[in-house]
Structure prediction request, 82 residues.
Amino acid sequence: MKPSDGYLAPGIANAYFGYQVWLFPGEQRRFALLGIRGQMIAVDPASKLIMVHTAVRQKPSDPASFSEPLALWFAVLAQLGK
Prediction:
């Protein structure tokens, strides 16, 4: 894969390569990349913190399953973030 590949162009997404970037609410610029089977990468650019959560769920796309990793993420930010 390289940026010039058509499916990676801005504004283009398909069933196999969708954009899974989510912005957290609030004044800080924080975001997460969420995988269909529970994977998550949470990023806080200001404090240079990144959390990687690996997972392989049997059922894809269960929004409730992100509650524990997100609680951990916000607890880490409360202790170490800016």
